[in-house]
Amino acid sequence: MTNATTTRMNAKAAAGRIALFVVLVGLSMSFLFPFLWQVAASLTTNADIDLVSRTFWPERIRWSNYLEVFDRVPLAKYFFNSVLIAGWVTILQVLTSAMAAYAFSRIEWPGREKVFLLYLATMMIPGAVLMTPNFAIVLKLGMYNSYSGLIIPAAFSAFGTFLLRQFMLTVPRSLDEAATLDGAGHWLTFWEVILPLTRPGLITLAIFAFIGNYSSFFWPLILIKDETLRTLPIGLLAFSDDYGTDIPLLMAASLLAMLPLVVLFVLLQKYLVRGIQLGAVKG
Amino acid sequence: MREPPARRLAIAWLFLAPNFAGFLVFTAGPVVFSLWMAFTDWSLVRHNELSETPIRFIGFENFRRLLAGDESEFFWSAFYNTVYLMIGIPIGIAGSLLVALALNRPIGPRTFKRRGGAAALALVIGLVSGAGAWVVTHPGPAPSSAAEMEVVADLGITDADLETAWTLQRRKANATAGLFVMVGVVVALGLGTGVVFFRTLFYLPNLLAGVALFLLWKSLYKPSGGAINVAIDGPLNAVESLVSRTPPVLWHAFGMLVWLAGTVICLWLFVVAWRKWRDGDFTLGSIVGSSLAIFTLAAVALGIGYWTVQLPARALLPTGAEALGADELGAIRAALLDSEVELSPTDLEVAMAPFGDSARPEILIDAIAAVAPNGSDRARIESIVDEFTTPTFEGYAADGLDPPRWLVDETWAKPAIIIMGVWTAIGGANMLLYLAGLSNIPEELYEAASIDGAGPWRRFWNVTWPQLAPTTFFIVIMSTIGGLQGGFEQARAMTGGKYETETLTYYLYNLAFTDEFQLGLASAVAWVMFAMIFVMTVVNYRFGSRMVAE
Predict the structure, then answer these.
(1) Closest CA to B194 of B104, B123, B108, B101
(2) What is the DSSP letter of B138?
(3) Is the Cβ–Cβ distance between B550 and B466 less than 8 Å?
(4) CB atoms within 10 A of CB B367
(5) B498 vs B492: CA distance, rounded Å
(6) CA nearest neighbour of B129 among B163, B179, B94
């Protein structure tokens, strides 16, 4: 290869990289624009909204929208409900999944593989199949229109069990044997050895559980009748049905609803990304 | 472990118990329960504490009603809508792959110092050019001196108009400056963090997907004055002026050409696939790849072709149809009485009388539809009137192309949801899976290919694509399963299930959880969906098993 061709190839590669970068910046703008519009729209008045669509700039910045929206709908209550439910589901799901994963990965017992296969098999069942019977079951258990109806059915997860089992399998056997030699029982080994060592897995599952239940829609929609029990998605939908023409307030409320997830994501990004790649089985 | 087996079994089950109890009550049990429900006539309206009618076992009756009975119309229309919405899946997967390829390697300067320098420079350029743009575009203070106001008054401009124009200019100047700064920030973040910023940003919509995001898009899709229609207004006007200056026949020819080209390329892909099959060279990568490519191309080509062929007609529509004369009106009257529309002759006379011997077709249709016994006859009336309507090219592009009405239009509601879905999915879990897949490809394969003289194109098709086949395979299966169950939240939040956006899940929701609470029939829908998913997965695995030989 002569020097001239090498230079030409380098120049070509550099041009390619720059072009790629420009395309990526353009694509970024298309991802930013809806959110920019949302911020601009949430700071204006309804009369001004069409002009915001043309200029992306509110006439006068109205921070008061963010206070007014709390007067118009019990948004604080919705937040409280969503966080309460997602929080409880997360705690219970991580705990029950971790215990089950321990039984599937650290203890030898007859029938273990068969029961585990049963768990795996149900992960293939579409959610639609479970909706109607679960509704009937929850009705029968008297949990209709209540917090427990939203929390209890979501507190057990075959996916979580599977995910944590995979994490626990990577912990060396010698560690629990050492713990046993020191006289620790299974419960102590579970708490003191296995759980600390699978912390990334626990955090991953916790994020999945929290995000999934924070924005869960179908189940609260069919289960909740009282306005005071509404979660954020349901509250937002009701707000849109009732005041959908007041776009600035609706956008302010939506933005507030999205905010916790963005914060969570920025804080815990590396766990989430790893979890998605590891536990790719989740649909 | 040292404890006896019986004790170990007991301990294992103690650990398993809480999860297993929940698993039995809310997962395994319901599966069996649901299967039983699907064969009953259980409805909460008929079977509750107040009415003690027993729930009857009715065999396959629910399935018959859905697939071929009184519910089949709704079931199949929901099925059609669901499959239509799944067009977005291959497009999204292709987008995810492209983005993953672009974000696979570090971009921008390599060293920490240089990255910081480049980012700072981009930021400064962004701020300076933003300030410059503001100075150039900002209109300054509105005219206020007596002399200026006199000029304004002479031009016939009112104070209010002046105020509006100035405010608009000011806001545009602010926004333009903001845009420059924004691009500067994006470039700075991109250069400064390598790929992390882009990956995070592209993932964001996927994280937020839910009612809040759908309501945002609903506002963006607002038909008149919404941000999207404002944005496409310019391009549409350009197309319109182009159309109005071209003979329609050329546009038809162009549309046909796109159509033809799409068909030829698809056929060619089929031939390539068939040849490979014949040579026993049909790997997983090529089957998934060619079907994705065929599907995407066909969708795009059909879409563009259809739209272009329609263009002149659309441009014509507002004033294009000539008024109907006495002869046509007589023929329409006869055809209507002859048709399946059950119009009484007197009603028809009453409806048509005000028009005398000339009528505009769209007004005539409205008048006749008003006396028709039921609303669904409107389509038939329209088609009959259309038969006798000759379009002319006089009013050509007079009112121009209207932007789509998106979520409040039967034709555009589904494409609107698809566009949003692709936007969301591109940077989502699929991109992360592809990134993981790409990082697992051994570097030696690329080196070997380079030594053999393969360019980037050949390297992609001979190394990257086959190596990613298992990832693609997995993504395709999961996306199909998800797609068949999807669309509920979008439709519920954005269209309320109207405008032909009711998907299978939405249909199930309507059956089970709204007015009639028909739990039995809804369970049957769920099991039909399960059967479809099962068949698709089995088919996918059949082809997937070839991977072993690969």
Answers:
(1) B108
(2) -
(3) yes
(4) 18
(5) 9
(6) B179
Q: By three-state DSSP, how is residue B273 classified?
A: helix
Chain B residues within 8 A of A127 when measuring between CB atoms: 485
**Four-point Cα dihedral B471, B474, B476, B480, nearest 10:** -160
Distance CA A201, CA A191 (A): 15
What does the pLDDT look like over B187-232, one tens digit per residue? 988 888 878 888 888 988 888 878 889 989 998 998 877 888 888 8
Q: What is the mean pLDDT of chain A?
A: 85
Task: Give the A window 198-227 contacts with B, CB below 8 Å.
Answer: 211, 215, 217-218, 221-222
Q: What is the ipTM of this complex?
A: 0.87
- Residue B133 scores a pLDDT above 60: yes
HEC states along A250-266? Answer: HHHHHHHHHHHHHHHHH
Burial (0-12, 13-18, 19+ Cβ within 10 Å), B351: buried
Which amino acid makes up residue A126?
Answer: P
Phi, psi of B57 (to 5 degrees): -85, 120
Confidence (pTM): 0.79
Tell whether A9 lies on the interface with B, counting CB pairs under 8 A: no
Dump the DSSP string for B361-421.
HHHHHHHHHHHSSSGGGHHHHHHHHHHTPPB-STTTTSS-PPPP-GGGSTTTHHHHHHHHH
Secondary structure class of B479 (helix, strand, coil): helix
**Band of residue B283 on the pLDDT scale cut at 50, 70, 90:** low
Report the C-alpha gap between B16 and B27 in whole angstroms: 15
Determine the pLDDT at residue B229: 84
Using the CB atoms, write b or e for A262-276: b if 16+ within 10 Å.
eebbeebbebbbbbb
B249 vs B228: CA distance, rounded Å:
30
**A92 Cα to chain B: minimum distance (Å):** 10
Given a cut of 90, whether residue A282 has pLDDT beyond it is: no
> Which 3 state secondary structure label does DSSP give A23?
helix
A56–chain B Cβ distance below 8 A for any pair: yes
Mean per-residue pLDDT, A226-241? 87
The one-character DSSP state at B56 is: P
Note whether A46 and A217 are within 8 A (CB): no
Q: Is B303 exposed, middle or buried (0-12, 13-18, 19+ CB in 10 A)?
A: middle
Find which of A19-28, B167-176, B391-400 is predicted with most confidence, using mean pLDDT: A19-28
B127 with B181: CB under 8 angstroms?
yes
The tokens for B338 are: 């002859």
Measured at the CA of B357, the angle between CA B355 and CA B361, to 5 degrees, comes to 60
Contact between A69 and A252 (Cβ < 8 Å): yes
Helix boundaries (H) for B104-145: 112-137
- Residue B500 Rama label (left phi>0; alpha psi -120 to 50; beta): left
Greater model confidence, A250 or B147: A250
CB atoms within 10 A of CB B486: 22
**Tokens matching residue A106:** 């650290």
Q: How far is CA B458 from the centre of its chain?
A: 32
Task: Give residues 164 to 203 of A whose Cβ lies within 8 Å of B.
Answer: 180, 186, 190
Condensed to tens digits (0 to 9), the pLDDT of residues A92-113 reads 999 999 999 999 988 888 888 8
- In B, minimum Cα distance to A235 occurs at B211
